[in-house]
Write a structure and sequence with these properties.
The protein has about 210 residues and is mainly alpha-helical. It is built from nine helices and two strands, in the order H-E-H-E-H-H-H-H-H-H-H. A two-stranded antiparallel sheet has the order 1-2. Helix 3 (about 75-85) crosses helix 5. The protein is extended, with a radius of gyration of 32 Å.
Length: about 210
């Protein structure tokens, strides 16, 4: 049963051993320093690598926004294969990999393949050991080479579509029927197997007659 109004609280236990349950943060300055030192050691161990990741150009979802392009999570394995980049080495040179995304169009595949090839053309890969250049390393690479501050300024996401200028409707467009075209395409898709079987039977009959 609860208590109402400004009455005395019965059996109130307010003088318990609260000191043992207080969380302190006296090591905050030291932890800050150790985290910074760990980040610096990790960066030194990894060596020279891109500070930003190259992102693919992907379509926004739903029919309302699918005319727009935006930066995606990562490149697909098909895009990396066309560009000649192994998925295991991709992230080490600043290219993320998205294992879930699938390419639904040739245009999108080509667009991201071109982005990867343009990125590879400007990429400088230093050998692990100085003077021992292996396959994939850049010949004569130097730390004094000009660098890129922002990937977005050099490899921007292109516009999703270019708006068409106003023009007059042609006579062929006036006579064409979108409904009839859709119905015909649907019918062709449903009857493709039946028509193929009929053509095969007719060819077999023609061959039998010639014998």
């Amino acid at each position: 049963m609860g208590f109402a109004h400004n009455n005395v609280l019965h059996r109130n236990h307010f003088r318990k051993d609260w000191q043992s349950r207080v969380k302190t943060w006296f090591d905050q300055p030291g932890k800050k320093h150790s985290r910074r030192a760990a980040r610096s050691a990790k960066a030194t161990k990894q060596g020279l690598r891109p500070t930003e990741l190259l992102r693919p150009a992907v379509r926004c979802p739903t029919s309302r926004y699918n005319t727009k392009l935006r930066a995606g999570k990562g490149f697909t394995k098909a895009e990396l294969k066309l560009a000649g980049i192994r998925p295991k080495e991709a992230l080490s040179i600043g290219i993320p990999v998205d294992h879930r995304r699938r390419n639904k169009s040739e245009e999108g595949l080509k667009l991201n393949k071109d982005r990867l090839e343009a990125y590879k053309a400007r990429l400088v890969v230093f050998p692990k050991k100085a003077g021992k250049v292996k396959k994939g390393d850049t010949e004569g690479a130097s730390t004094t080479d000009p660098t890129i501050r922002s990937l977005a300024s050099v490899f921007p996401i292109p516009a999703g579509m270019t708006p068409e200028a106003p023009r007059a409707i042609t006579a062929a467009e006036r006579e064409a029927s979108a409904f009839v075209a859709l119905r015909k395409a649907r019918s062709d898709g449903r009857l493709v197997g039946v028509r193929a079987e009929r053509a095969k039977t007719a060819a077999a009959e023609e061959a039998a007659k010639k014998k």
